Every structure is written in C-alpha cells, then in structure tokens.
Amino acid sequence: MQGLHAPFGLHARPAGHNIRWRVAQFPTPCLRINLAIARRNIRRLAEYAGRHGLKLRPHTKTHKSLEMSRLQVEAGAAGLTVAKAGEAEIISGACPDILVGYPAADESRAARLAQLARSKSVRVAVDTRAAADAIACAAREAGSTIGLLVDIDVGYHRTGVQSPADAVALAQYVDSCRGVRLDGIFLYPGDVRTPPGEQVQPMTAIGTVLGETLELWKSRGLAAPIVSGGSTPTAYQSHLVRQLTEIRPGTYIYNDMNTVWGGFASLDDCAAAVECTVVSDAVPGKVVMDAGSKTLGSDFNVIRPDGGFGHIPEFPEAKIVRLTEEHGEIDVSRCPIRPKIGRRLRVIPNHICPCVNLHDFAILDLEDGQSRQLRIDARGKVS
Q1: What is the pLDDT of residues 186-223, one digit of tens each?
Q2: 10 Å Cβ neighbour count for 371?
Q3: How far is the C-alpha of 173 from the C-alpha of 379, rounded, in Å?
Q4: What's this model's pTM, rounded to 2 decimal places?
Q5: Which pLDDT tens digit goes with each residue over 106-140?
Q6: To bridge 46 with a disulfide, which of 76, 191, 316, 325 should be the other Cys (CB 3.0-4.6 Å)?
Q7: Number of domains comprising the chain
C-alpha cells in the first residue's frame, strides 16, 4: 500500500484528528459515514474556494442527502448541482439554487424542471438546440424561466459542443428563445486525472479554450456571468483556469479508492466505508463477505483497474477479486492473518457515488461516538 496513509480501520485515529469508529450491533452489509471526516472535507474545499474567489456548487450525486447538502450550504456553497430532475426536486429542499448538470432533452424531464423553476432558481446545461427547445417550451407552459449554460467539450468527449464557434452559435440560439435565459458556460474536465502536481498543462489548455470562447461571445454581444466547471480530481487546481467563476466537485465529501489511488485524497480523507461480515472461508486462499455488487457497485478502479473492487484497511494485503450480487470474494493468500468467520470488515469502495445510490440509508457516526441513521433522500432518482 505504498503512498497510502495509516490504516483506516474500525478503531483508526487519523493523525491529528480525534476520530473514533464505534462498532455497533447493526446488520451488515451497511454503509457507514464518519461525520467528522465529511465535515472536514466540506470545510477544506470551501476554504480553498473562498481564497481563490470561486463559488462552490457541490455535485450532490455523491451523497444524495438533504442533511449533507445542508452542511455544504452552511459551509458557504452558493448552490448545489444535480444530474436528474428527481434529484433536483428533492435536493432543492436544502437549497433554492440548483444546477442540473445533465441534458434535459426530453419533454417529461423538462416539464418537471419547469415546474420546479416556478419557486426555485433552476439552471440546466445544454449542448443542442433540441434540448434548449424542450426546456424553453416547458418553461413557457409552466410560466417560469430557466437559466441555460452552454456545455462545451474540453476533453472528456462525453457531452458538449465541439468548438468556440459552435458554442457561440448555440448561445445565440438560446438567447433568442422565450422561457429561458442565457446564463453562461458549463464544462467538465473529466479527462484530467493526472496527479495534482502535473495538472498545470491540461488546466492551462482548458483555460485557452475558454478564453477563445469568451472572446467570441463578447464580440457577438453575449455575456457569460457564470463559467461553471470542476471535478474532484481537479478541485484544488481550479484556480489555474482563471475564467472559472464556480466549481462543482462531488466525490470530495466522502472520497473513495479512485481519489486515493489518483493522489487526490488520502485514506484519512475517506469518510465512507461499507461494513461487511465474513460469511465463508471454505475455498482455499479465499474468504467471502456478505457484500457484492448490489452493495458495493461493480466499478473497477480508474487508476488501477487490476486493483480489485475496493480496499480493506484492516487487511491491506487482501484483494477483493470478484463480486456477484450478494457475495464478495476476497483473496487472502497474502495476508499474514486471515479474517475469521463473523469478522466485520470495512471496505472503501472504488467509486462511492454508485455505492451510495444502492442504500436507503447509512449509519452516520457522530463526533461524540454515537451513531444514527442518515437517509439517502434522493436514492434511486434516475430520471
């Protein structure tokens, strides 16, 4: 486990932080959240954004929780980001300023957002005239107005117009539509996953594209008061893109093995883990835990695809080699001591966002050593 900090086990005390995991008698598998670590992660990024004059609009896809949303707003978040209309309807209960960072190109989704916009501030990222038309039509019918951000592709090649000229053409079209308001530019630097110390070049390249786009907009009489970007891997290098006005990281609140292996966080920064129980050791060299793909998700690690399906801090030599729906198979052949039947383990998932969405609630471990339930309010809101 080269490069990782001290073990993050059931009773781990990260250096410099008085944090204690208390073993409670509750059924496994179960998602557990350490509130002190989550609060620290929230505070740290809010302080960074404040120092660099950036607004923070966290993506709530990671926690899907009204309680965690409120903690982010209390720490200074100017608004919140969601992906789907169902998430927007729920998360707006914690903050009246919502950005939908996902194309709402269908009639049903647009209509729900238009209704929400009658009482909340709603913005949506778009990269086609068809999406702009759907949202504008729904807004007119609902008697509301929705702000639109033109999504530009800066390297991830998932969504976004392909050039500054395309961006200005779509912006001009949006500016001509009744029911919507041109609010600026949206981008996602999802392709930037190099270590933080190596991000100057790719972030500068993004700034160059933005600069060209904004100059072209200005020449056509268009304004972009919002330039919204950011991700967890690039969060603390966001100031390198001077055109940004706000950032939208999500995973940073809990972190996971993607952020750890990428060098964007340490094990000490991982606020979420799935507690599991060893239920079988009949197969030589293996034990089986009661958490499979229906609990952990099935994502490989982005940085280390051969690294297994998560990390077990108490047994760092172990490797989760296969997940089926309810079984997690762990190769323990390299472990000096094998976990026994009934042993509880903590697994830090590769990707915490889909993992959270598999749970109705989490166990929230409080700073005073007590625990209580945390609802995953927007769980399953995929439309």
Answers
A1: 999 999 999 999 999 999 999 999 999 999 999 999 99
A2: 19
A3: 35
A4: 0.92
A5: 999 999 999 999 999 999 999 999 999 999 999 99
A6: 76
A7: 2
Going by pLDDT thresholds of 50, 70 and 90, the confidence category of residue 19 is very low
- Longest alpha-carbon distance in the chain: 71
CATH code (residue 110): 3.20.20.10
Average pLDDT, the chain: 94
- pLDDT at residue 8 above 80? no
Q: What is the pLDDT of residues 360-381, one digit of tens each?
A: 999 999 999 999 999 999 999 9
pLDDT tens for each residue of 60-93: 999 999 999 999 999 999 999 999 999 999 999 9
CA distance 124 to 90: 16
Q: Which of 253, 287, 305 is the last residue of a domain?
A: 253
Amino acid code (one letter) for 344? R
Q: Are residues 337 and 246 in the same domain?
A: no
Assess contact for 149 and 186: CB atoms under 8 A: yes
Beta bridge partners of 81: 59, 99
Contact 377, 304 (CB under 8 A): no
**Over the chain, what HEC string results?**
CCCCCCCCCCCCCCCCCCCCCCCCCCCCCEEEEEHHHHHHHHHHHHHHHHHCCCEECCECCCCCCHHHHHHHHHCCCCCEEECCHHHHHHHCCCCCEEEECCCCCCHHHHHHHHHHCCCCEEEEEECCHHHHHHHHHHHHHHCCCEEEEEEECCCCCCCCECCHHHHHHHHHHHHHCCCEEEEEEECCCCCCCCCHHHCHHHHHHHHHHHHHHHHHHHHCCCCCCEEEECCCCCHHHHHHCCCCCEECCCHHHCCCHHHHHCCCCCHHHCCEEEEEEEEECCCCCEEEECCCHHHHCCCCCCCCCCCCCCECCCCCCCEEEEECCCCEEEECCCCCCCCCCCCEEEEECCCHHHHHCCCCEEEEECCCCCEEEEECCCCCCCC
- Domain that residue 303 falls in: 257-375
User: Does residue 216 sit in the same domain as residue 306?
Assistant: no
